[in-house]
Amino acid sequence: MANGSIITIKGKNTALYRSYTENGDLSATLYLAPTKIQLGLSNGTPLITDTTLDYPIPYVDGVVNDNGDNQLTGSDGGDNTTDNVTTYKEGAGASDVTAQNLITTGSDTTKTWTITNLATLGTVIDSAKYGSMWLYIKDSTALAKIVSVELKLGSDASNYYSVTFLNAALSVGWNWITNPNTIISGWTETSSVGAPIDTFIIEVITGAAADAFIAGDLIYDLLRTWSLDDTKNSFQATYPTFDYVNNEVTIRSYFTTLQANGFLINGIGIYNEDTMPLLLGEDTITGESKSLTDEFAFVVVDRVL
After folding, report:
1. Model's pTM, two decimal places?
2. Can you list the positions of beta strands (E) in the chain?
3. Does residue 24 register a pLDDT over 60?
């Protein structure tokens, strides 16, 4: 069910351009007709000025840089992680059923967990891509201890790109830790990041040094990267369709059991393929959780009144 739908300014610009430009100009790579759909989570109220969804998601796998099977080394107030085979995050084509418990020593307000050489796992970070990890917070007691969570991706522990979530931006359950619509090289840079980018760090700041997390309180899973193209699916064949009696156009895009898994989807964006693609329409819907047993079809109907 849609909670908010809008045709953006660029959508109206495109409709005008397509309607009133002579045929000879219609092949220009400007104000092209819509052809792509993008899904998102935590999407707010659509605004006519929006140019992207709040949190676009990759609907295809992208690159799994760490699937959550590997132990992270603890330092400061963090202890070495342990496997959690009960609570884990699906998605990105990862077939494992393992995440990592972020456990602590209760000795420092800074809790740190690190993998120092992602290359040994078969991959390094491409800073020209987007990136994220999942963090599970068990309950309000665990959440109340957290001041901030920081994801760091760098060439070593002193040179990294990072994104930080403060307590107010976190919630009980799964949190998608990412910098939306910003490639990794656009994150906050500390010192000077070189190559390869193969150091992965999770840093949690708590209110007191004695604040501790035991197995199950705080869980990490699935570090991944993806490109912008990985977020945009084509319309299904034969769409759009046109109803000239009711002045309606219908757009449909289909997502298989292998796509967009692990996300609570509540945002839909309709894009064209201009040199700089434009968001032409946006919908915020009641959140739908997508798992590997689900097939989703999203249908958007626009009417000219």
Report:
1. 0.94
2. 2-7, 36-40, 63-66, 73-76, 82-84, 99-101, 110-115, 130-137, 146-156, 159-166, 173-178, 188-190, 199-206, 218-226, 232-234, 241-243, 248-255, 264-271, 279-289, 296-303
3. no
